[in-house]
Design brief:
2 copies of one chain form a homodimer. Chain A has one domain (21-204): Tetracycline Repressor, domain 2. Helices cover 74% and strands 0% of the residues of chain A. Chain A contains 10 helices and no strands. The radius of gyration of chain A is 19 Å and the shape is elongated. Chain A binds a DNA duplex through α2 and α4.
Chain lengths: 205, 205
DNA sequence: GTCTATAACGTGATAGAC
DNA sequence: GTCTATCACGTTATAGAC
């Protein structure tokens, strides 16, 4: 792995120095995070209020704010939860594949992961949007590195600008996932394979 | 054109039966629309309140609601404004190109249009997100049709599923534009050409 | 016809009850 | 340690002044 870890690192960075939390606390936090994921997936970030979270959990707003410092803290926790699941899943798949097939593995698992967890996908999309920090390439760099390694493993010249190639592939993945979110009948696996085929054709040119 | 018209048609549909509006009214509306575009581009849909629009225009909230029926009506007007500009621009470029080169023209003008108007791009993105109506393929169908026509003009078999191909290209365009919004130095023209090269390679396979 | 002042509501966060 | 009642603010929309 290592590639995707960087993605997560940005989020996890400030959180060093956590106090140990009780079992009931941990359970409540987990419950609230799950509820928040569902609500954000359904209504979006801005439309998800503390009141709606509290109501879904059967408690009051203040109780939510006892377990989390602020609304943003709840959102950040929910985002971190789905992001770490994504990183672990895709990272493992990429690491298990030989370097020259890592890009295909990345595309397949990324699409598969999101298709299997529509709620997570929607949360990640929402987070991507509402995250107004200028992410200096954090989005495309991991994939660009995987693509470069694959080319090296095949003994090819570095062809198209890796940044642009990673952006194109990443954007295509987003579009395929987005289509699945709107139409549950859309065949994402076939979409992923089409994208991989295009990528192979472009890499050999 | 005709392809992109459909995109706009959805939005424009209900608005038949408009009463003629006075000059000052039209001017105010235009002013408010421009202001709204700027604010939405800067802060996003949810964070753009009537108060912020009114303040930027130097009037009160109520005055805004005299010219538009509701906050959503202001937003819809702003969206319609940027969308019609996009449709007119890209549509003209596509129509001017021979069928076999229409996809390339589409990509170039789409990217160019957005790169030249970052505010418009951001508004379109925001609208895409907050538009929770299930758009039955409205997003990819125009491009899919252009791609199919190009293949026909070249006497090629219909290869990859046109829906998937359109989704991939559309997603790639979004990613290229998104990158430009975050990094003004990113060379979108080069990105567009890379995408077109990939598309050509895939079409010939 | 154009706009200002006011109202009714929902929000995130706090102070304090248990 | 856990949660409820309360607060101050910003929101959209309306009623009414000019």
């Amino acid at each position: 792995m290592g590639y995707l870890r960087r993605m997560a690192a940005r989020r996890a960075a400030p959180g060093t120095g956590e106090k140990p939390l009780s079992f009931i606390e941990q359970a409540r936090r987990g419950q609230l995070i799950e509820i928040t994921i569902g609500l954000v997936a359904e209504r979006g970030y801005a439309a998800t209020s503390l009141a709606s979270i509290a109501q879904a959990a059967g408690i009051t707003k203040g109780a939510v704010l006892y377990h989390f410092a602020s609304k943003d803290a709840v959102m950040a926790a929910a985002h971190a939860h789905v992001l770490s699941a994504l990183v672990a899943d895709v990272g493992a798949a990429v690491d298990a594949a030989p370097a020259d097939q890592a890009p295909a593995a990345y595309v397949r698992r990324m699409v598969g992961h999101m298709a299997d967890r529509p709620d997570h996908a929607r949360v990640l999309i929402e987070a991507m949007i509402n995250d107004d920090r200028p992410d200096s390439g954090a989005r495309w760099k991991p994939l660009a590195a995987i693509l470069q390694d694959a080319r090296k493993a095949r003994g090819q010249d570095p062809g198209t600008d890796p940044r642009t190639l990673a952006l194109i592939v990443g954007g295509a993945i987003d579009a395929i996932i987005g289509e699945r979110l709107q139409d549950a009948d859309y065949d994402v696996e076939a979409g992923a394979e089409s994208l991989i085929a295009m990528l192979e054709a472009a890499t050999f040119a």
